């Protein structure tokens, strides 16, 4: 049994022609253009991503710094309010102690 179904058919390679060479050149021109376009697209996209990432990082850093500054001012104000309140209470306690001491000196000798 013959392995070839069509033993009488033989293929002869076609010798290169100027037309065949032209098609290879045309394919190379398109390949180069597509490769250049893809490379430029990737490079420009990477630049855009990098720019936006950096911008987002800077904006986040500024927002964080602003929030920290507002928090510091708020905490400082609350701290001052607590100190003023403590100072008022201390003055009240001193006044009360002085009043009690003064009133103690004014009691009659027979009362204790």
Give a written overview of the molecule.
There is one protein chain. This protein has 112 residues and is mainly α. It has a domain at 74-99. Helices cover 79% and strands 0% of the residues. It is built from one helix and no strands. The longest helix has 88 residues, at 18-105. The radius of gyration is 47 Å and the shape is rod-shaped.
Number of DSSP strand runs: 0
The number of helical elements comes to 1
- Briefly note the structural class of the backbone: mainly alpha
Mean of all residue-level pLDDT scores? 88
Helix and strand run: H
Ends apart, CA distance between termini: 141 Å
Strand content: under 5%
Low-confidence stretches: none
Computed Rg: 47 Å
Let me know the largest β-sheet. Answer: none
What's the overall geometry? rod-shaped
Helix content: over 70%
List its salient traits.
112 residues; mainly alpha
What's this model, at a glance?
The chain is mostly helical and 112 residues long.
Layout: helices, strands, pairs:
Blueprint: H1 18-105
